[in-house]
Write a structure and sequence with these properties.
Helix content is 6%, strand content 43%. With 161 residues, the protein is mainly beta. It has a 5-stranded mixed β-barrel with strand order 1-3-4-6-5. Strand 5 and strand 6 form a beta hairpin. It is globular and about 60 Å long. One of its GO terms (biological process) is DNA repair. It comes from Neptunitalea chrysea.
Amino acid sequence: MSGTLNKVMLIGHLGDDVKVTYFEGGNCIGRFPLATNESYVNRQTGERVTNTDWHNVVVRNKAAEVCEKYLSKGDKVYVEGRLKNRQWQGEDGVTRYTTEVHVNDFTFLTNKSDSAQPSQGGGQSSYNQPSSPTQPTQPKQAAPQASSFVNEDDDDDDLPF
């Protein structure tokens, strides 16, 4: 196979509020740390061990504004995107490196009782960032509940369930 794949899917908690930076021309970029945990029981001591990994998450334009408005520190979120490595020169002259998750799709997983959050079923809302900046941005529709998959044409079925 000659193709390659760069895809990341994470479910975690925000380590801080979303910080948005605006640029000339109306574009913006949002950044926030995302914590994912791994838990296991140490076989020798019997105690539960939890390891936390931190990820630098980047969202752009309308997605950044949506995240800034509805996400806050501690909220649980699903993000999907790709890894990007970046380097820059620090003020001290040292070259620094970082790895970021550039998000193109996300779903809020924290159920908020705040009526300001858009509700699209189950207390979750999704957003799919468009691939081109000229395409209008629209929230992705949440999956319908299982009961809505019933087909009314199958009423004469002999199935016991």
